[in-house]
Design brief:
By secondary structure, the chain is an all-alpha fold. The protein has 3 helices and no strands.
Length: about 90
C-alpha cells in the first residue's frame, strides 16, 4: 500500500457548492421504451462521439441518446409554457 494519508482539522478555505447532476435511482433502474429511427448526422459529429466513447469505455450511440434525452428533458419544461412558434415558422416538425 502507498503512503498513508494524514487528515488534520484544518480550515477548508473557499468552498463551492456543485448542483446535483446525478440522476435519481428510479431513472437508473428502469429503461424507457425505445423507438428506432434513421437519422443522418455529420461525419464530424459521429467521429467526435466515437472518439469520446472510446475514451470513456462506452457506446457512441448511447452517448448521443443520453444527450438527446437530457436536451429534451431540459427543454420540455420551457415548451410546456410556450404558446408560440420559435424562430422562423414551421418545417413540418
Amino acid at each position: 500500500m502507498s503512503k498513508r494519508i494524514k487528515y488534520t482539522d484544518e480550515p477548508l478555505g473557499r468552498v463551492k457548492v456543485v448542483r446535483d447532476f446525478l440522476p435519481p435511482p428510479e431513472e437508473l433502474a428502469f429503461r424507457e421504451e425505445g423507438v428506432k429511427v434513421t437519422i443522418a448526422l455529420s461525419k464530424r459529429s459521429v467521429e467526435f462521439f466515437k472518439s469520446a466513447a472510446r475514451k470513456h469505455g462506452t457506446q457512441y450511440q448511447r452517448m448521443i441518446r443520453r444527450l438527446l434525452d437530457d436536451y429534451a428533458r431540459a427543454h420540455s419544461r420551457s415548451l410546456a409554457g410556450s404558446t408560440g412558434r420559435r424562430r422562423g415558422g414551421s418545417r413540418g416538425e
